Amino acid sequence: MGQRGEQLQAEMLTIMDQNSGPISAYDLLEKLRSSNAKMAPTTVYRALASLTEQGRIHRLESMNAYVPCQHDHHHQSSILSICDDCGSVEENVAPDVLNQLETVVGENGFSAKRHVIEVHGLCGTCDSEEAVQ
Amino acid sequence: MGQRGEQLQAEMLTIMDQNSGPISAYDLLEKLRSSNAKMAPTTVYRALASLTEQGRIHRLESMNAYVPCQHDHHHQSSILSICDDCGSVEENVAPDVLNQLETVVGENGFSAKRHVIEVHGLCGTCDSEEAVQ
DNA sequence: TTGTGGAATGTTATATTATAACGTAAAGAG
DNA sequence: CTCTTTACGTTATAATATAACATTCCACAA
Ligand SMILES: [Zn+2]
Ligand SMILES: [Zn+2]
Ligand SMILES: [Zn+2]
Ligand SMILES: [Zn+2]
């Protein structure tokens, strides 16, 4: 792996870790431009693709945004729960759910390669606050 | 001039039923323009939103595309399995999976409102064909 | 009948997300 | 030092989606 790639990716991870929630590719680009004014979308998307392949970040398909992995980056498909109120995301690895899912889709011979499991709703904190009102 | 709500939506459903797989909003727009050359993206997106709210179609978040519902349109969140080879989509309703999912995300008090469950892979047919080669 | 309010649509413009195509530069191997 | 590979730069454009406001249609009531 080239040193150049890792440096950009590390900076992107830092930004994403410091960000309170999911970040879009273009918001990330804007932040990156403070250290490199000429950064282009292409570069960001390439690095995002690499980080995603490595499992270091996950793409939220239902939001066109990205979050850092919250677990060991070699885990299987995870469940991402997204609070629509505060924007927080929690990642859960649950082999049981995956197994059941594969059973269901496998009934007609479907062979699963990639799972997208995203749950929208309210996190514990926001849900409690709703109840008060 | 324009087709009022239900008529447009019915035409969109027909197009989607005749289409072999998921269709993008703009591909749908292009087909609609054969009967109404001035149709605009806004109109299509509005009708897609309405059909989605009614449960008559589902949006594939991981593909930016839409498919007709394959079940009674009042069912709970379903599992959409997408063949990356032939583009076919199968819809499964599986309460057990949902229950398990809610249990997992509920561990920290998360309250689920909407589930996105999309599985990419190979359908039975395409998987068999792969094996032959 | 005619007016009127709300929903759907038209119209125009723009925002947001993502990739294509091709050239250049950097790092590592030998 | 050359070769190769990969990352990166640059420019352009494609693809997806929404904002903002005007207009039209239609149900329904005055
Ligand atoms: Zn992860
Ligand atoms: Zn929250
Ligand atoms: Zn359905
Ligand atoms: Zn297939």
From TrEMBL, chains A, B:
One of its GO terms (biological process) is negative regulation of DNA-templated transcription. Its cofactor is Zn(2+); Mn(2+); Fe(2+). Fe cation binds at residues 73, 115. GO terms for molecular function: DNA-binding transcription factor activity; transcription cis-regulatory region binding; zinc ion binding. Zn(2+) binds at residues 83, 86, 123, 126. Keywords: Cytoplasm, DNA-binding, Iron, Metal-binding, Repressor, Transcription, Transcription regulation, Zinc. InterPro entries: FUR (IPR002481), Fur_C (IPR043135), WH-like_DNA-bd_sf (IPR036388), WH_DNA-bd_sf (IPR036390). GO terms for cellular component: cytosol. Its main location: cytoplasm. It is found in: Cytoplasm. Coiled coil: none annotated. Binds 1 zinc ion per subunit. Binds 1 Mn(2+) or Fe(2+) ion per subunit. It holds the Pfam family FUR. The keyword Electron transport does not apply. Belongs to the Fur family. This is Ferric uptake regulation protein.
